[in-house]
């Protein structure tokens, strides 16, 4: 059993603005733990989490793989989340490198086909389109709504990121995505196969309250 990262340095005020790890986060922990042999077998050098929030997920991954074996880049549009991510890395001796940006946009050219492990627990809750747009608007400062407001079918933010995945993934790279039933899992997997040739596998699924959560792993067909 891999220990959950220590978040005791984060305050209630931090969690007013930054996503508090919840069932979705823990399902992704469990999926990574489930795949630990495969992940170690990749000997990853570069891991990216987009939407790192508190940083606990990347800290957990670094705990699995060894903090000095890979670079752990963590992006978020929420400035307080980026700060929390850095502090969580330091608190757990798992150095994390936060980047305040949307998705991995400014890194795309430099990181083309070089990301070994890619993680995204996105804002997946179905909301109005305007709610999701407001939550993504960085001009007035980003708050907690960026953690959950997903627009139509809860897929508006995720869909934008899905367009980056093929360009980022290394030949043997793996992408882990959290989704909920209203996001239409089979539609996501079909689109990723038809558009980019990526195969998918549901690593874990779990009911948590009203949510039916999934962790989907994507890979190139030629990878293990
Ligand atoms: C559901 S929370 C997940 C937080 C953390 N990864 C976890 O699992 O506990 C979603 C995170 O995505 C971030 N986010 C939303 N839109 C984003 C975007 N366009 N680019 C990067 N991060 C984004 C939010 O600010 C939030 O921190």
UniProtKB/TrEMBL annotation:
One of its GO terms (cellular component) is eRF1 methyltransferase complex. Gene3D superfamilies: Vaccinia Virus protein VP39. It comes from the Eukaryota. Residues 47-134 form the Methyltransferase small domain. The keyword Nucleus applies. InterPro entries: DNA_methylase_N6_adenine_CS, Euk-Arch_PrmC-MTase, SAM-dependent_MTases_sf, Small_mtfrase_dom. GO terms for molecular function: nucleic acid binding; protein methyltransferase activity; S-adenosylmethionine-dependent methyltransferase activity. GO terms for biological process: methylation. Pfam families: MTS. It is found in: Nucleus. Keywords: Methyltransferase, Nucleus, S-adenosyl-L-methionine, Transferase. Belongs to the eukaryotic/archaeal PrmC-related family. This is Methyltransferase small domain-containing protein. It comes from Hydnum rufescens UP504.
